[in-house]
Amino acid sequence: MSSQDAYAIPFAPDLAWQHSFAELGERFSVPMQATPLPAPYWVGQSLALGRELGLAPGWAESEDWLQALCGNAEMPGSRLLSSVYSGHQFGVWAGQLGDGRAILLGEAHGMEWQLKGAGKTPFSRMGDGRAVLRSSIREFLCSEAMQGLRVPTTRALCVTGSDAPVRRETMETAAVVTRLAPSFVRFGHFEHFCHHGLHDELKALADYVIARHYPECLDSALWGGNPYVAFLAAVTERTAHMVAHWQSVGFCHGVMNTDNMSILGLTIDYGPFQFLDGYDPSHVCNHSDHQGRYAFHKQPNVAYWNLYCLGQALLPLIEEQDQAIAALETFKTQFPQAMAQRFAAKLGLPPGTLPPPSLVEDILKLLAAEAVDFTIFWRRLSHWVRLQDPADASVRDLFLDHTGIDAWLAALGALHQAAGRADAATRMLAANPKYVLRNHLGELAIRAARLKDYSQVAALLEVLQAPFDEHPQYESFAGFAPDWARGIEISCSS
Length: 494
Ligand code: AMP
Ligand code: MG
Hints:
Number of strands: 12
Number of helices: 16
Strand content: 5-15%
Order of helices and strands: HEEHHEEEEEEHEEHHHEEHHHHHHHHH
Largest sheet: 6 strands, antiparallel
Structural class: alpha+beta
Helix content: 40-55%
Bound molecules: adenosine monophosphate, magnesium ion
């Protein structure tokens, strides 16, 4: 009896799967089966996401769920597939890519469910279809951390692992992430059909995404009644907001290829990402990115470049090039506006008030000049505003340039005075996280997990899901990065 036969019947929960993506047809995806994972075990579980989805309590202890979410058993009613997409990687057309190690189960509880690392697919190219424990823990924790930070993101329900060996630079072990999103469609899906001149399929995909996720684009009053221009403008807006969010929490994605850009403006494909420790705007977190194409400060421009690729792909539907350009140009107002809103929140300004641009530029310059820790600075600043104690030097002490920071703090004080100080600190504490998934925290959890101790993964998850709260028992997660953190090399290898 195969493992699938063994689990097909005992698996009781009926998730009432739906299959709208599969119904787009065979040009979009191929039916799949997962490759069994020997002797799987749980590595991490987001009980919070399970609750949000309304899963029956107990899933996290269930052998049926374990076998289903590592790909050993098919959930009744699921219909496994991998989808085809193409894309630009590091600025160059890369041709066909596709779900090389992700398998879609269908939609349940309003989300698409994917198993990432569940074995080879027709799109695996030279890859083995697997993901390693290290990168799976990072994706799992960061997905839920971003959700905690209120940054638009795909979600992660769990990681399952196995001792099955997987070859990367060294031998590692296999893991599978169950990730969820309202849709996993990427810019690269549209590029694929445009590139091959498959305009009927291109239209079918656009109509599908618009109907399900952007129905407001069907409003005939928008963009001359052209839903495809309205769609491009809407994706532009969501992408601008997502990247502004990234910049405001010091998140560096690391591999912003067009196949890693979600059509819903969600952060997707957590690979060589990093939260900045010291603020270095030109930081490159991906050791495979030799040109620094995806440096932290380049992310907004790269997003804009990627949106142009999407615009190009949608041109056969939009027809009017000027219209497409006009939709894309909205990025130039959307992004600065979104940034101003994010920094208004970080500075504790009342709703509807935006900071003077120079105040934001000045603090970013001061932070960059001394590579001051980005997260610790904003959190200390929030408490400094709360305490209003002239003797409190906690912010000042972060800088050598006391003249510079004193002048800036005075300017902030004057702004708070003018805008109304009430609730400023409360707003700041709700906008400036105490905890982010620093590289070294992930690394320590991974090292423990390799020894089968998953308590660090669970502890980090707990804290990162509520990063604006104080967690006194986890004070060490809020400290400066140790010196050895600089030596952690994160590449595309995953
Ligand atoms: P990424 O850099 O993770 O966005 O992946 C780029 C492309 O390579 C996508 O088509 C992935 O599905 C594919 N890919 C990455 N790693 C593997 C792997 N181990 N096996 C098969 N395909 C992979
Ligand atoms: Mg990818």
